[in-house]
Task: structure prediction
Amino acid sequence: MPGLTLQDDEELGSFKLSYGYDAEKAPRLAQLRRRLRAEGLRAKLVLSHGMFLDVIPIRASPGQAIRFLGFKWNLPPERFLVAGDSGNDEEMLRGNTLGVVVGNFSPELRVLKDAPRVYFAEGCHADGLLEGIRHYSFFDAIRVPEEESGEQEAEA
Result:
């Protein structure tokens, strides 16, 4: 397809195809999803940094992995801290986890600006993650935003 270039083998996996994505030449994501469905393929398309397109199984994602581990270890999702910087992290950050978007995030994560439990750090890379850990008091008495607002309303 025009605007899609298969990435090198080291970017591919048994359950992931990765393409370079040229937004000016490639079909829009909605068109690509329709094409996949028409071919009988159930897959998820994830755009990152506005220029990389991953095609993964419909039920595969970092967010699904976090939910699986929480179930396996009997840990509630609000006791997981997750961090991301690009579109492939969006689904994971949208859950009931404590999310941190690091300062060097790509534009596709702007949609999470007002999402509950998603903290936008000023620091980039590991500094942003450390800032998020401090924000949620993660190694102390974890501060969950909804629990705090509920406590504040009960006190009023």
Remarks:
- The CA atoms of residues 16 and 84 lie 19 Å apart.
